[in-house]
Amino acid sequence: MVDTAVIIEKNRDRLKMAKQPIYDVLIIGGGVSGTALLYQLARFTDLKRVILLEKYSDVATVNSHGRNNSQTLHCGDIETNYSLDKAREVQRTARMLVNFSLGLPDYDQWLFKHPKMVIGVGEQEGQFLRQRYATFSADFPAMRFILRDEIAGLEPHIVKGRKDAINAIAILDEYTTVNFSSLSKAFVEQAQAVSGKQVELALDTCAGKISKDGEIYQVESSKGRYQARFVVVCAGGHSLLFAHRMGHGLNYSCLPMAGSFYYAPKLLQGKVYTVQNDKLPFAAIHGDPDILVPDKSRLGPTALMTPVLERYNIRTLPEFLRVLRLDMDVIRVMWDLFKVPDIRNYILKNMLFEVPLVRRRLFLQDARKIIPELRLKDLEFASRVGGVRPVMIDKQARKLHMGEAKIDTGEGIIFNMTPSPGATSCLGNAEGDLRIIVDYLGCQLDKTAFAEILLGENGLPLSNRDIA
Ligand SMILES: Cc1cc2nc3c(=O)[nH]c(=O)nc-3n(C[C@H](O)[C@H](O)[C@H](O)COP(=O)(O)OP(=O)(O)OC[C@H]3O[C@@H](n4cnc5c(N)ncnc54)[C@H](O)[C@@H]3O)c2cc1C
């Protein structure tokens, strides 16, 4: 027997849906990745309706908040964990960020210059930096190889009390530091300033189930259902969870790596990085001025495996357990990590960095590699500072997948996972999405404006990622 009430309900639903607009693109997640994409879609395509759903009451309050990351514009010159190819890639996207910013009158609200350097301590690291300088300086002409006296002139507290030999690669006059939350707001402002388009920001709107009905995606949310022809999920660690729910990216698991920081008095003028231990997959600590706490230097980040997708948000524990998809492959990857003594000790040490009574004393040993005369009483754990890097575990390859990951389903939906240097790469990642969207929806891309505004006159696009 046909239930009349059900038919009436279904028709009411259909009527309601028919009244709702169908967006060209719907973005989930208002961090720096999602807002960069919103900007690119509004500014460089002829798409008319774009919407971004963000579950909190403002954009960039999670990992893209200035308090929760290292505020570094990674250019590849002082990050010794980057190969030359990786360095060239991040240099290009860092340049896009600078080009975007310098085109706006208020760029000094989020983009800053500090001197920066990576120090080589002792004979082995010193030799390593010499070689790196020889290999990298052609691509990074602002690099200078400097010795103890010059380092002392720039950063006296790095040299004071240091017995070991020291040298450095320094870059003295470039943009180095970004407040990624202010940048995200600038992206939204610029997107909404484009005339003749409907560019919506739906705050306090938590996206839930996504399904596809014919060619159209239906996205359930705390504020009702949205419809779109294309969906991009830029929800940090949650992106993989969305993918899993739809049967995508099942060969990936997520290992959230939290990073904490410590404050010291303002002893550093600029960014001071250290040479990476190549046995460790996580970046070495550095020190720099904190743009949000002007009278302090900040040291970190640490690398703590943590069972939540958002730092200090225990409600994301069940989501972590779902996205972990613990099985023998994940256990094998973890076991392989633990088997290496350097990694095992590093993981354990980083756990102790969180234990109140011992953490400052332990961290002091690492911090003194940067500031040798730092005293215990100068060091303070930065409470509720630091976010989470959603590092992917590739279960097929049985290894960690460092850096950003994108799942392009080819079906009009993309999932972005963005550990460091994901904030620097926001415009580069968005460019990748833009190209996929333009192909899928068959819309127009204003290549000239893109090249002028983002690649800049002197932009050196990498041939394989250039706008064709
Ligand atoms: C300790 C640390 C230091 C770092 N340092 C640097 C650095 O110096 N330089 C650099 O380039 N990168 C750095 N990173 C990485 C950088 O912070 C991230 O790559 C970047 O912020 C990721 O931006 P995002 O927009 O992809 O994610 P997020 O900023 O995490 O934004 C995701 C958004 O999605 C929203 N969201 C989640 N679920 C939903 C849902 N269901 N519905 C609606 N919205 C949802 C969240 O509320 C959030 O606003 C660092 C990261 C950490 C943790």
What do you see in this structure?
β21 (405-408) and β22 (413-417) form a beta hairpin. Residues 458-468 have low confidence and may be disordered. 46% of the residues are buried. The chain starts with a helix and ends in a 13-residue tail after the last helix. It is globular. The protein has helices spanning 4-19, 32-44, 84-102, 122-136, 148-154, 156-159, 180-192, 238-245, 317-324, 328-339, 341-352, 359-367, 426-441, 447-455, and strands at residues 22-28, 49-53, 111-113, 116-121, 144-147, 166-171, 175-178, 198-202, 207-213, 216-221, 224-233, 252-258, 262-265, 271-274, 286-290, 293-300, 304-305, 380-381, 388-394, 399-401, 405-408, 413-417. α2 (32-44) crosses α13, α3 crosses α13 and α8 (238-245) crosses α9 (317-324). It folds into two domains: 22-115 and 173-465, FAD/NAD(P)-binding domain (3-Layer(bba) Sandwich); 116-172, no CATH class. It is an alpha+beta fold. The strands form four sheets. Strands 1, 2, 8, 9, 10, 11, 21 and 22 form an eight-stranded mixed sheet that branches. An eight-stranded mixed sheet has the order 5-6-4-14-15-16-13-18. The site of flavin-adenine dinucleotide has 41 residues, from α2 and β19.
